[in-house]
Specification:
heterodimer; A: about 120 residues; alpha+beta; 4 helices; about 30% helix; about 25% strand; globular; B: about 550 residues; Sulfite Reductase Hemoprotein, domain 2; Sulfite Reductase Hemoprotein, domain 1; 6-stranded mixed β-sheet; 5-stranded antiparallel β-sheet; about 20% strand
Amino acid sequence: MKALTANRLDDGDVVFWCEGRWVRRFADAELFAESGPAEAAAALARAQPTVVVDPYLIDLEEADGVLVPVAFRERVRALGPTIHPDLGKQAEGGAVIRAMQAATGAARSAGRLGLIRKK
Amino acid sequence: MYRYDQIDRDIVADRCAEFRAQVARRLSGELSEDQFKPLRLMNGLYLQLHAYMLRIAIPYGSLNSAKLHRLAHVARTWDRGYGHFTTRTNLQLHWIRLKDAPDILDSLAEVGLHAIQTSGNTIRNITSDPYAGAVADEVDDPRVWTEALRQWSTVHPEFSYLPRKFKIAVTASARDRTAVRVYDIGLKLRRNRDGALGFGVLVGGGLGRTPILGQTIREHLPAQHLLSYVAAILRVYNRHGRRDNIHKARIKVLVQSLGAEEFGRQVEAEWRAMDHAAVDLPDDELARIRGAFGAPAFEARPARSAAFEAAKAADPAFARFARRNVVAHKQAGYALVNIALKTPGEVPGDCSADQMDAIAELAARFSFDEVRLTYAQNLVLPHVALDDVPAVHARLAEIGLATPNLDLASDIIACPGLDYCALANARAIPIAQQIAARFADPELAEDVGELKIKISGCINACGHHHVGHIGILGVDKRGEEFYQLTLGGEADGDAAGDRSRLGDLLGPALPYARVAEAVEAVVGAYRRARAPGERFVDTYARVGLQPFKEAVYADAHPA
């Protein structure tokens, strides 16, 4: 499973793709079971350079019955700084937030690798 | 303190207006992200994990109360009410919106602050001794020369597109408080046997993925030739630096490949061919800059303060603070007061807007309106009358910044790491918090003594881990946060000589959950092995890695 993420251009906020629009909460993100629709969404996102910066697909896995980002980096992006539970989207709470906070393990992030390639 | 003249104000105002137009063009789509990114970086604006991050320059780490109040205002108005002081004596705000950036820069410009050259392949914010102008062992005020370099290097057309970023540090004391050997150029101001003022010039230091200590290419450069000589170094670097490979583009790689002797020879040849008078600072301009750094109007005070001594006798907490954080001043009856932004449980280097305001008020009332930043992510009130230190301490205690831990185990350098930084592999701040918690007992911390722990969340080494007594580097191991420990690093020196060295790798990387206990085990091994009076690094130099390996890995379970 995959989701599509980016940072919003005007404020840098982390956003996720949902059926042609961008949403702030990972819980509201569109989840892609097939790579074809995911890549198609990514292509549409790349055509929105005045809305978002550097969109990319992230891998998801199930944790306690909830799909969450595999990469720890992506969970931090979706939550906020681990040292400030009152800051970022984690402050809003909810079942998906709790699942991401409880998730363990990690994987390399496509976002970081993309950033290094472009540096 | 140097105050911007009309030229400085015009440069900053022009840049603010230029960047406002660039942001508007980016938001409208006239500029692509690839076109805009180098422009925003030239103004210190990065895109990090959660938002944009603005890195504000604090030239040679020197602030007055108006500037610190303004930083508090910006943090409160456009960010989340706090900022992060860095190892490069900058302030980073981590929750900035692009659309607000032009207004923020305008606000900063009103008090002579900006973010110019806090990123990009140019000469970055220049650092100096946070104790400048306040200690007896300096041969001259290094801020005079640092300010000259700042003016000369600001939007310098020849050096705005170097092969890679370029960092300069200036010190004028035998005691190095700048980590001068890990800079691209390190300048050590001193007098030769004839009493003439000159710079020892070091080049090619740096950390990151290729840690190298700078080497001396000139023992004594007559001080008046500072600008032309630095220009010569930069010209050689600009000519031969590896623009084809970002990992080999820093000057340290060039110096290493040519050899310091050959690099120095080329610099000398370049310098001798230059018209020095066209580049070096005219005497009248040097005098103008020097005039901005005159001594404050110190009062004649006895060297011993009855109020200070009485407070020490009455309050053990104050006595400990006086012992750890208060440093002798060159002026009788005064002291430097270090404010450690390292309260156990808090984030190293973080300072809330309310704390900034409170410190600014202390500076205005008790320290001739001056505050300094240190590369260890702490602050200094450089000119406090001994009589006033108890009142300063009391106010610092009220705002949670009176921890008496300067240079102790909980005075940890940590980069923002994976909690904020888009490049990080691993978190640094929570590791620092876990270690600090284990050494929060002031009795224990003082018994352990000087111990400089430095943590970086990736190989870029913003946390200076290579020169930590205990260095900790976050790495990506099969996609998970792991941490390498190095021991015995140091970036210090004094009248007895330079002690800088890079740490040695202890062993296999440890998982996140084991780092704090490993550091505690290393400290335990030190306490068992140390001879009377030995610091951690002294014991390490004597006994080597083995006792520490045994302490950490004896019962290790393979990860």
